[in-house]
Write a structure and sequence with these properties.
Elements lengths: L1 E9 L8 E3 L1 E5 L2 E2 L5 E5 L21 E5 L2 E5 L11 H11 L3 E5 L17 E5 H10 L14 E4 L16 E4 L2 E10 L16 H10 L2 E10 L1 E4 L3 E4 L1
Parallel strand pairs: 9-10
Antiparallel strand pairs: 1-2, 1-10, 1-15, 3-4, 3-14, 5-8, 6-7, 9-13, 11-12, 11-15, 12-13
């Protein structure tokens, strides 16, 4: 079977809502501009972890996009400003319930500010997996944004509920880019959190834990870097 790229996503600030793009630039370390900044609680210095701490549950409601200077942020997805804009930070503090501080991650480790956890370079989910979960939870709003993939692949329904779990160790070709499935993506409470247009729904995590051993989607390594565009053909070798 073959599929095609349905959606492409980048998340410039870890835990904040990402940006949907028509094209992604992929290098060996992953998507250019992806998860390059972090958000912390100014009072405690703790990095945001909405899926594990209720204190940070409002963070995914704010938006981030990558720009030449680094990142731009927005509360409503319309007015965009830099991460140190005083008016924005005050608005974020009211929305989050704490004063945030935004910092670029240290790509070389010398400054000590690293992501709370780091996974493989690329995260991929198929539409077949989304439809499977919709059948399992007909009363829930299942949306790819809950799972934060870089690549949503439009893939035919398979005998397996989550066909990409069978792609571990295999090459995934998307145009000139080649990925290799590394491991399933273990899920946390993030997939249950309310976001713009998505209600809170704890049954989603319960079902993923019960029926899929907590896994949904896969992490991939980059074999051949390049560019990926929406609509590109996807084959698995």
């Amino acid at each position: 079977m073959t599929g095609k790229v349905a959606e492409l996503w980048r998340y410039p600030v870890s835990s904040m809502a990402g940006e949907r793009l028509d094209q992604l630039h992929i290098h060996a370390a992953g998507v250019v501009g992806d998860r390059i900044w972090g958000l912390l609680d100014a009072a405690t210095g703790r990095i945001a972890s909405p899926g594990r701490e209720k204190h940070f549950i409002g963070v995914p409601r704010a938006h981030a996009k990558a720009v030449q200077e680094g990142v731009a942020l927005s509360l409503d997805g319309e007015r965009w400003v830099g991460p140190r804009d005083a008016e924005l930070l005050e608005g974020l503090s009211q929305a989050f319930g704490f004063m945030p501080v935004l910092k670029p991650f240290d790509a070389f480790g010398s400054g000590g500010f690293r992501p709370r956890y780091e996974h493989a370079p690329i995260h991929l989910v198929t539409s077949a997996a989304i439809r499977s979960l919709e059948r399992e939870l007909p009363g829930s709003v299942i949306d790819a944004r809950r799972f934060r993939p870089n690549i949503l692949v439009d893939w035919p329904d398979d005998l397996e509920a989550i066909p990409e779990h069978g792609w571990i160790g295999r090459e995934i070709r998307i145009g000139d880019v080649v990925l290799r499935g590394r491991e399933p993506c273990g899920r946390c409470g993030f997939i249950t959190i309310a976001q713009e247009g998505l209600p809170q729904d704890v049954e989603i995590l319960r079902t993923v834990v019960k029926r899929h051993e907590r896994n949904f989607g896969i992490y991939c390594d980059v074999v051949t870097p390049g560019e990926i565009a929406t609509g590109a053909t996807v084959t698995v070798g």
